[in-house]
Amino acid sequence: MASREIYLDHAATTPLDPEVADLVAQVQADCFANPSSPHAAGRRARRIVDDTREQILADLGAPHAQLVFTSGATEANALAVHSLTVSDPRFPASLACSPRDHESLRGLASVAKSTDCHSTLLPLDCTGRLSQSAVKQWLASSLDSAVATSPQTDKPRPEKTAGSFRRLLTATLVCGQTGTIEDVAGLVDLISQTQAACRLHTDATQAIGRLPINLATMGTTSLAFAAHKIGGPRGIGCLILHPDETLVPLLPGSQQQQRRGGTEPVALIAGCGLALKKALRCQQAESERLLALRKQLETRLLEASQTLGLTLQIIGNETPRSPHLSTIAFPGIDRQAFVLAADFAGLALATGTACASGSREPSAALVAMGLDRELVESAVRFSIGQTTTQADIDEAVSRLGELLREFATRTKKA
User: Fold this and answer.
1) What are the residues whose beta carbons fall under 8 Å from the beta carbon of 279, sequence distance 6 or more?
2) Cβ(239)–Cβ(80) under 8 Å?
3) Which residue among 231, 286, 311, 358 is buried most deeply as judged by most CB within 10 Å?
4) Could you tell me if residue 157 is inside a domain?
């Protein structure tokens, strides 16, 4: 076992920022009261919740939007989809997601089939982004097929007009597998051009703190993210919605203006607000630093592979990518065996998104891109973050070079 572990799995989660940790501990000790309680201690806790909500919305350029604190991005995604599928059962609903979406969205598409909701899995293009022609076709559809295949109800249907259908398109701003950046502006334009009554939900979990985000100009209906991807605590996420949207809660209760039941975790909310503020404050400089480190990692691994007679392919290299994430295929090398060997060498890597990294099944996003199976089976994800240093990259490349040498020798013997 190597003496020093090098963490290159920031896309799964990030270390808790020390300043954020201090704030969480302080709020937990000083403002432990239930924020719904009417006494002074409760009012102090309530003030933190309200002030943090205002701060987050202001920081993201949407001071008048709605913000619901959730247990994480998974719940935030679920809440956005649930609100569409049950908001008005008189009208048929249609949900479209894609293989680049997180399992929390793709899984919800399957669940939606049991309700009066038609779900569609849209294809990706060769760049790993949503096929805009497929999106355009989905938006232009009359949804007659959706109505025909939906479970029958005894409730009368309103007349089928363009506004009768409740549509939701999900878009993952940064793919957790490839790091490719979705053309959200293009999707907004498509929706506008077709004049379809369609909501656009954006999962920004991998994008927050790495890309500039301004909800005032973004054009999405709702956006989800989780604090633990940006140095914040686990167990807290946000769903931000357009101010005119009506939200149907998943968890009934009087809290958060009846949008999500359950006592608000005041300390985690405070930590989320600080983590976001710090991430946005240094976003441009940090993104430039991470991009330089990522390029070094990719270039030096390419050189090491060429020296050993191995091929290497950076997935999505011709497409705009987030600076913190790189998925690299090593044809002929089993991805899980490589990640396991890297772990013994003190390197924390991943085969894909954390929710699916233990699966032998290939990445849905990579398969949907039409890549050769050999590339899909050998793809390893590297992700860096705020605590990643130049020394980490230097040492990681050295250890990875030794691992590649070992695997190259095994391949030649075989």
Assistant:
1) 208, 209, 230, 231, 286
2) yes
3) 231
4) no
- Residue 376 falls inside a structural domain: yes
Dist CA 227 CA 72 (whole Å): 8
Q: Which structure tokens are listed for 22?
A: 């201090």
Q: Are strands 347-348 and 325-329 parallel, antiparallel or unpaired?
A: unpaired
Do 288 and 190 share a domain, yes or no? no
Q: Based on the domain organization, do 313 and 210 belong to the same domain?
A: no
Q: Are residues 11 and 108 in the same domain?
A: no
Buried b (16+ CB within 10 A) or exposed e, 178-204: bbbbbbbeebbebbeebebebbbbbbb
Question: Pairing relation of β-strands 166-172 and 93-97?
Answer: parallel
Which domain does 369 fall in, by range? 6-15+283-413
Cα–Cα distance measured from residue 144 to residue 116, given in angstroms and rounded to the nearest whole number: 13
Q: What's the pLDDT tens digit per position in 286-295?
A: 999 999 999 9
The amino acid that residue 157 corresponds to is: R
Whether 397 and 350 map to the same domain: the answer is yes
**The CATH number of the domain where 360 resides is what?**
3.90.1150.10
Element (DSSP H or E) covering residue 326: strand 325-329
Domain count, the chain: 2
C-alpha closest to that of 77 among 185, 219, 224:
224
State whether 262 and 343 are in the same domain: no
Residue located via tokens 């937990």: 28
Q: Which of 242, 264, 281 is the last residue of a domain?
A: 281
- CATH (domain of 61): 3.40.640.10
Among residues 281, 313, 335, the one where a domain terminates is 281
By CB neighbour count within 10 A (0-12 exposed, 13-18 middle, 19+ buried), where does 97 fall? buried
Do 189 and 210 form a contact (C-beta atoms < 8 A)?
no
Considering only CA atoms, which of 353, 372, 359 is closest in space to residue 313? Answer: 372
Q: What is the pLDDT of residues 108-163, one digit of tens each?
A: 766 665 556 788 899 999 999 999 999 999 998 854 444 444 444 444 444 444 44
Average pLDDT of the segment spanning 16-42: 97
- Angstrom distances, CA of residue 116 to CA of 79, 139, 201, 207: 17, 18, 19, 32
Q: Looking at the DSSP assignment, which residues form a beta bridge with residue 241?
A: 66, 222
